[in-house]
Design goal:
DUF5133, mainly alpha, single chain, DUF5133 domain-containing protein
């Protein structure tokens, strides 16, 4: 499974968490988070996204990047 870039994922999580529940974009963000994390529940998506973001912060710079040929 492809993982979204941490910057994109962080923006999605932050935007979802700051919007009021009545905002129509909340549903779109919940859907995007679920698709991005391969889950069906936004709570699971947020938990998984936070875990991925925490792991990404601990990786050394350049880790996981493709090697130059």
């Amino acid at each position: 499974m492809l993982k979204p870039h941490p910057t994109v994922l962080r923006r999605l999580v932050e935007e979802y968490e700051t919007l009021p529940a009545a905002d129509p974009r909340t549903g779109d963000l919940a859907y995007t988070l679920c698709v991005s994390t391969g889950t069906r529940d936004v709570r699971q998506a947020l938990d998984l996204a936070r875990g991925w973001l925490a792991a990404a912060e601990q990786e050394p710079a350049g880790a996981g990047a493709p090697a130059a040929v």
